[in-house]
Design goal:
1361 residues; alpha+beta; Methylamine Dehydrogenase, Chain H; Serine Threonine Protein Phosphatase 5, Tetratricopeptide repeat; five-stranded antiparallel sheet; 63 strands; WD40_repeat_dom_sf; cell projection; WD repeat; Beta-prop_IFT140_2nd; cilium
């Protein structure tokens, strides 16, 4: 735990103006300038460092330290620059450039260049390598108030060289012009904005410059490698404060933080393009500072803390929760507000951070203060609890007398503390002060340079330069223990009992303190495994009460400059010389450790939980810090015992002494909201209610807890078997619920003799999940919070909702119902409404009755039963709900307010009730008119009743019919023997019940025709058929038969079928025989009389099961043949397929002629014969114009291995190419394919092979001839002549094409005589010329040889075969 304590800087009567911290990380120095022209130096505790450093007859305007060197620069109102170096302790001045107030200063990252700007527009670039030397200067208009160095990254992302980083800078001011310049006298105006520039910041992550103006315009420019600005964003800011006093800084990577005299800090996340704000209300739980205004701001990049100064003299802080993430928070949930500190009655004009640690300086109009973050020192040891509560006060309480605190006030600022049974020692790195715990007085004080000390009995151990000195309280050295430099710097010293552990970065050393001279126990142990691999860097350690185990806090350093805390706590077991560790996960880091001073096994670890940012919505998932207790045992290792959330008033752990844990808290003071420390005692979970038990009981419970944590139940029960105290068993039962051990809870309940609890355990075993079972036990033990948590984990939100309602937590119950248990939402609303009704809060009850949608019944009941009639009437009129109007109308009617009842019935649109009232009042005409107007069925019915009472039967029947109450109308018709009206009414009604009842009535009166019709309409077909035969009503029988089904009586169906057979209506007879399951007879009749059967009949005839009965199969085969004969090929195909006769089925499918179905069936059947049939069929289709069919033919022949058929198919392809397209090239390819498949035929088909080979040779010769026509015409002529001389050449190619080839050649050579001779040969062979030669060529040849052309003969078509 840490608090900020303030130290006043001694300035006498001087008024501070400005302050700046040096960049030293070891001992930073604070420089403060005052209005009388002086500059002073102070330590981080506010103590004066030297005498007055600088003094001039001017006002120091700004202070700045060199980034690396101990050099301070002071900028004065008259333009003089003074600088002081700690190395030579001298002050020098530079006054050659500026002659007026210097308004802006910037220094480059490595400190080699500095740039200044004054109110006259002079900008100077300085070299700081040797003193302060001007390099160049620029003169511009207006005051130069803001300057910023920048880096110009290349397009490839390369890191700029050092000279490039120090070369370029931006400057701007009151004129609104922004300039980019360097130290080579190059300067250019890159942009001009409206108003004055109030902020100029370089955004190094984005390589851009951010400008904020007095007109609240924020402009972001991307700095490009060509040194020209590229605008990337322009936003108008919303600020309610004073724009002239706006101050902007970086609050993290890409996060702008702005203050302007409001009660908030406005933040803009440039990377996420989001904005939010942090208000003073976040930091103030008392509400005292809500009216205060923030006027100054600073950010600590290392600690990631924003600090702000207010107008009323307060300092407020916000700490970033995302310490492990390098990103800036995207919303306000990523910041944790700290309590404010009051420093001055005057405004805090400036705040600034020290570079070494969390130290803040604050400047007001009259004072300067240093706020230092102090980690409160604490210890539990030798029966005492000690806690530093302020920067110089330690409070000590005896564990046995916690209500009697002792406070020890030190004269030094405490930076370390330790305690023994006799003395308390505190130190600050320079002085050690000791107090006697018995007399409560100072027992000694001496000076020693050390921050690592410890106390044993009445001795003080002080770590100095590579040695550990054992001193008495006056500082007299009794013993010196060497700590060689080679072992490293000591990181921690801890003493418990008579054993001391001293750790360095990499070593653990144990010492025996039982003797007069302290001796080392064994050799120093390196912090590494057996293979020599380091476990990390030790940053803290403590030893247990018997001195055999050391707990270690560890850092990891994967690279020299990167150090981060390890998520594990390590244990060094001295007995086995080995290390153990317990990992707390990625989001938790152990920050403090303490062994129990009672039991050697118990270790308390404080973990700090870092916020995790959700990737989905960028929200911070917060987790509380925890105090985790661990059992450490050589045999069992490290086992988690319990975890307590560190929240609320608890801030951090102090230590452990069974049965108590001790924590630090905070008491908020009246004048200082930052507060002071306090000790908080909490009983451990396992000992609640047993704090005053005997030591043997406490030991037994501790052992029980240890064995339960180990899972060793036998030893656990053995440890507590002698305990007879019921409260102890009850406490252990409670512990078993918390540790999720139902079996232990059952045993504890048995020993408690708690029958109800035991019953709860038995009933809980019926639940499916362990959490629900434990929750039921927790309820019996009144552990409501645990039961809620368990039901929540089990997702049993219904039971959780019930618990919350039963305990009166209605707000939480409704939240659960609305989000997790919506199935019981309306029930929850109703239950809450009943609760409010019980406490007479009727208005709220009405609200929840409405939400539960039960208000139509419950609200009238509630208000009427509580005599709230007026309120009820107002509610009814307000809601305008029909149900409520009807309820109110019934109430009025019961009170004889007829007019009011009619009005409310009308508002409810309950016109039936209005008509009823009219009838009761004797206003029949009004009732009749309203019925006609609204066509109210209820009204017609009521009027029908009225006319029936008046014995006006026909009118009553008519009204009953209008109201659709046909039963009443039919009753009246039967009673009054109005049979004609009865038939009409019954048919109009559509009621089967009424039809059958009326049919029976007509049957009894021997009106059989009417009875048949009504029995038919009433679905009683058997009765209708019987009456048809009885009354010889065969005409209606023909109509009735269409509705007969196989559910009817078979005898009736056969009787009807016989009638239709006799009448020659065989199709109807077949359907009836099938319905009667006389399949053979039906099939016989179908065959005899050629009755076409459809799929419905077939589905009934053919059984679903694959019966092997030969008779049934033969019958099914007959059906298939019948379907085939009738042309129902698809049905026949299905039946044959079902019989397994795929070939017959496929032949039926071929008869159907559907190519796609044939292809599908062939692919399914997968038999060679079907493949061949399919391919043969497809050859009869238009396969040469459909590539898919052609592929299927080839595929099917291939699958069937019908190589001869496939070869003939390709031969046919070649013929088609020749005859249809004269494409001999494709024909040649097809013929080659044919010959290829012939070779696969087994046994070989020599005749087919020879025929195809002969044709292939002829095709090849002719294709060669055609190709030689242009290149070697002589070869072409020879080949063609040879082909013409070949016998039976027509079997291979068309001879007409050969003649045509020669004629066209001689025609092209104008050898008409030769061409004519070939024409004559074609004619002599009976070859028609036109299919082979153009008519123009024929006419030209005839003309050239002087022969008359016979066109008629040439045009003659070829004869058709």
């Amino acid at each position: 735990m840490s608090l900020f304590f303030d130290y006043k800087v001694s300035l006498a009567d001087e008024q501070p103006i400005f302050s700046a911290w040096s960049n030293s990380e070891y001992q930073p120095i604070l420089a403060v300038s005052t209005r009388i022209g002086k500059v002073h130096l102070y330590s981080e505790e506010g103590e004066s460092h030297t005498k007055t450093l600088m003094a001039r007859p001017s006002i120091p305007n700004q202070l700045m330290w060199h980034p690396y060197l101990p050099i301070l620069y002071c900028f004065w109102e008259d333009g003089v620059i003074s600088y002081w170096s700690e190395n030579d302790n001298s002050v020098k001045e530079e006054k050659s450039v500026h002659g007026c107030r210097i308004c802006g200063v910037a220094i480059c990252p490595d400190g080699s260049r500095m740039v200044t700007g004054d109110e006259h527009g002079v900008v100077a670039v300085w070299s700081t390598s040797r003193g302060l030397t001007p390099i160049c200067q620029y003169n511009k208009e207006g005051a130069i108030t803001h300057l910023a160095y920048c880096t110009l990254a290349t397009d490839s992302g390369e890191i700029p060289s050092t000279d490039k980083m120090n070369k370029f800078f931006f400057f701007a001011g009151s004129s609104g012009s922004v300039y980019l310049a360097d130290d080579q006298r190059r300067c250019s105006e890159v942009c001009k904005v409206g108003g004055q520039v109030k902020s100029l910041l370089f955004y190094k992550e984005d390589n851009s410059i951010v400008i904020i103006t007095s007109t609240l315009l924020m402009v972001q420019f991307r700095v490009s490698p060509n040194e020209k600005l590229v605008p990337s964003k322009k936003v108008k800011l919303t600020v309610a404060g004073n724009p002239e006093k706006i101050m902007t800084i970086w609050g993290g990577p890409g996060l702008l933080a702005t203050v302007s005299g409001e009660n908030m800090i406005r933040l803009w996340n440039l990377e996420r393009d989001a904005n939010y704000f942090l208000t003073l209300a976040d930091t103030d739980p008392t509400g005292k500072i809500l009216s205060d205004k923030i006027i100054s701001i600073a950010y600590n990049e290392k600690k990631r803390i924003i600090v702000a100064g207010t107008h009323e003299g307060r300092v407020v802080m916000w700490k970033c929760k995302q310490l492990l993430s390098g990103e800036a928070p995207a919303n306000r949930e990523g910041w944790e507000a700290q309590l404010p500190v009051s420093l001055s009655p005057n405004p805090i004009t400036q705040v600034s951070w020290s570079s070494s640690e969390a130290v803040v300086s604050a400047i007001s109009l009259t004072s300067s203060s240093v706020l230092s973050e102090t980690t409160l020192k604490k210890k539990v040891r030798d029966g005492f609890v000690a806690l530093q509560i302020t920067n110089n006060i330690v409070e000590i309480r005896k564990i046995s007398k916690m209500d009697q605190p002792m406070q020890f006030v030190s004269t030094i600022r405490i930076k370390g503390m330790d305690i023994s049974a006799n003395i308390l020692s505190v130190w600050n790195g320079k002085t050690i002060e000791s107090f006697n715990l018995t007399t409560e007085n100072i027992s000694g004080k001496f000076n020693k340079q050390s921050l690592k000390c410890a106390v044993h009995k009445e001795s003080v151990l002080v770590y100095g330069k590579w040695q550990l000195e054992v001193c008495n309280v006056q500082g007299i050295v009794k013993q010196t223990i060497s700590m060689p430099e080679s072992e490293g710097e000591v990181t921690a010293i801890d003493i418990q009992g008579d054993t001391m552990v001293v750790t360095t970065d990499t070593l653990i050393k144990l010492f025996d303190l039982t003797r007069r001279e302290y001796k080392a126990k064994g050799m120093a142990r390196k912090f590494e495994d057996k293979q020599g691999q380091s476990h990390g860097i030790i940053r803290g350690s403590c030893i247990n009460v018997v001195g055999n185990k050391v707990a270690l806090l560890v850092d990891q350093a994967p690279k020299p400059n990167i150090v981060f805390p390890d998520s594990s706590v390590f244990i060094y077991d001295c007995d086995i010389d080995n290390f153990m560790y317990h990992d707390f996960g990625n989001s938790q880091i152990p920050v403090d450790i303490a062994w129990d001073t009672y039991d050697q096994r118990l270790l308390l670890v404080e973990t700090e939980c870092f916020a995790v940012v959700s990737e989905e919505d960028n929200k911070v998932e917060e987790q509380a810090n925890q105090a985790v207790s661990l059992f450490v045992n050589t045999e069992s290792g490290i086992i988690k015992q319990d975890a307590v959330k560190i929240q609320g008033e608890i801030l951090s752990i102090i230590g452990l002494n069974v049965p108590y844990m001790f924590f630090t808290g905070k008491d908020v003071g009246k004048d200082n909201l930052s507060g002071i420390g306090k000790i908080i005692k909490r009983t451990m979970r396992d000992f609640l209610g047993l704090e005053q038990s005997e030591e043997s009981v406490i030991k037994a419970i501790l052992n029980f807890s240890f064995y339960v944590s180990c899972g060793n139940m036998d030893e656990a029960f053995k440890a507590v078997k002698t305990i007879q105290n019921v409260s102890v068993w009850e406490n252990m039962c409670t512990m078993s619920v918390k540790t999720r051990r139902l079996d232990v809870a059952e045993e504890c309940l048995r020993n408690m003799r708690f029958a109800r609890g035991a019953k709860a355990v038995r009933e809980a075993k019926n639940e499916t999940d362990e959490e629900s079972k434990l929750a039921m036990v927790a309820l019996q033990l009144n552990m409501l919070e645990d039961a809620k948590e368990l039901y929540s984990k089990a997702n049993r939100y219904d039971l959780l909702n019930s618990i919350l309602q039963a305990s009166g937590e209605w707000e939480e119950a409704l939240k659960i119902a609305e989000t997790k248990d919506r199935i019981n939402l309306r029930t929850s609303y109703y239950t809450l409404a009943r609760y409010y009704e019980s406490i007479q809060d009727f208005q709220t009850a009405i609200e929840y009755y409405e939400r539960s949608e039960t208000y139509r019944v419950e609200v009238p009941r509630m208000l009427y039963s509580n005599m709230k009639t007026a309120e009820l009437e107002r509610y009814v009129n307000q809601k305008r709900d029909s149900e409520l109007f009807r309820w109110w109308a019934q109430l009025l009617e019961s009170k004889a307010d007829i007019a009011g009842a009619i009005r409310c019935y009308t508002d409810a649109e309950d016109f039936g009730s209005v008509i009823r009232v009219y009838i009761n009042q004797g206003e029949i005409e009004k009732a009749m008119n309203l019925c006609k107007e609204k066509d109210s069925k209820v009204g017609w019915y009521l009027l029908g009743q009225y006319f029936e009472r008046q014995n006006e039967v026909r009118d009553a029947m008519q009204l009953y019919a209008k109201s659709q109450r046909f039963h009443h109308a039919a009753r009246l018709a039967q009673e009054n023997k109005l049979d004609g009206e009865l038939m009409s009414l019954v048919l109009r009604s559509g009621s089967i019940k009424l039809m059958l009842k009326s049919a029976k009535y007509f049957e009894e009166k021997h009106f059989l025709d009417r009875a048949v019709v009504l029995y038919h309409k009433g679905k009683n077909l058997k009765k209708a058929l019987d009456l048809c035969f009885a009354s010889h009503n065969y005409d209606y029988l023909k109509t009735l038969v269409d509705d007969l089904s196989e559910e009817e009586d078979p005898a009736t169906l056969l009787k009807t079928a016989d009638y239709f057979i006799a009448e020659g209506m065989h199709d109807k007879a077949v359907h009836l025989l099938v319905s009667a399951k006389q399949f053979a007879k039906a099939l016989e009749m179908s065959l005899a009389h050629n009755v076409k059967i459809d799929e419905n009949i077939i589905e009934k005839i053919i059984p679903e099961d694959n019966s092997n009965d030969p008779k049934k199969k033969e019958m099914i085969r007959s059906v298939a043949k019948l379907c085939k004969r009738q042309g129902s090929f698809q049905i026949a195909c299905k039946i044959f397929t079902k019989l397994g006769e795929k070939l017959k089925a496929f032949k039926c499918l071929i008869r159907l002629g559907d190519v796609e179905k044939i292809k599908q069936y062939a692919n399914t059947a997968k038999t060679a014969q079907i493949y061949v049939l399919a391919a043969n069929f497809m050859q009869n289709t238009d396969w040469h114009n459909n590539a898919d069919i052609m592929k299927s033919i080839i595929f099917f022949y291939t699958k069937a291995k019908a190589w001869d058929s496939l070869a003939n198919f390709f031969d046919t392809c070649a013929t088609v190419e020749i005859d249809e397209y004269r494409d001999y090239e494709k024909a040649l390819v097809a013929e080659k394919e044919a010959l290829k498949y012939v070779s696969k035929i087994s046994p070989a088909n020599e005749n087919l092979a020879q025929r195809l080979q002969k044709r292939l040779n002829h095709l090849d010769m002719f294709v060669t001839a055609r190709k030689s026509a242009t290149t070697k015409p002589e070869d072409m002529v020879k080949i063609c002549e040879k082909l013409l001389e070949t016998p039976n050449i027509d079997n291979s190619i068309r001879i007409g094409d050969v003649y045509a080839q020669l004629i066209e050649y001689f025609y092209s050579k104008e050898n008409y005589q030769q061409a004519y001779q070939l024409l004559s040969k074609m004619r002599s062979k009976g070859i028609i010329l036109n299919p082979y030669l153009d008519q123009e060529i024929i006419d030209t040849i005839y003309a050239k040889v002087g022969v008359k052309s016979n066109s008629a003969d040439d045009d003659m078509d070829e004869p058709i075969d």
